[in-house]
Design brief:
The protein has 162 residues and is an alpha+beta fold. The protein contains 4 helices and 7 strands; from the N terminus they run E-H-H-E-E-E-H-E-H-E-E. Helices cover 21% and strands 30% of the residues.
Length: 162
């Protein structure tokens, strides 16, 4: 993509994580859109609440001055939590920009940052029927378990060794 920059998120940009958290919520193709207020449910809001602590790490994709994607990790008690040394991933690309390799580029940059910070691995949780499972596998994530989330969805727990 032209004019695409992948860079660390800046403190003044943290509010955009609300938009990207909303867009990170997987809905099956036949599902009705959900209210944006869903991101404020405690099980979801934990992914961005008070973002900016020492263990938080994030990158954005910017094109022509617009942030079109974000990928971030936190050590939080959430769906993909493994232990207190493993940051959990969240990633989202705005719908109009999906399928263009932006997510992969953000992830490579984020993996490098995590490795530089001394992290050994990163985890995530993804619904079994989410096509993103294959995306994560291509990036080197491996299935480590299965869980049922708060909405009774079957999720995969995955880990990538850095």
């Amino acid at each position: 993509m032209e004019n695409l920059k992948i860079r660390q998120i800046q403190r003044e940009e943290y509010p955009v994580l609300e938009d990207f958290l909303y867009h990170a919520i997987y809905l099956p193709p036949d599902a009705a859109p959900v209210s944006r207020e869903i991101i404020f449910e405690p099980e979801i809001f934990v992914y961005i609440k008070n973002f900016g602590t020492k263990d938080d790490c994030g990158v954005v994709a910017e094109q022509s001055g617009q942030i079109i994607g974000a990928a971030w990790t936190r050590i939080i008690p959430a769906y993909g939590h493994m232990d207190n040394e493993t940051p959990e991933l969240a990633i989202s690309v705005l719908p109009d920009f999906r399928g263009k390799g932006i997510g992969s580029e953000m992830m490579k940059t984020l993996f490098d940052l995590l490795h530089e910070r001394g992290y050994k691995q990163t985890s995530l949780s993804v619904q079994k029927d989410n096509p993103a499972v294959r995306f994560y596998e291509r990036l080197g994530y491996e299935l480590t378990g299965e869980r049922i989330d708060h909405a009774n969805h079957e999720d995969f727990l995955m880990v990538k060794y850095l």
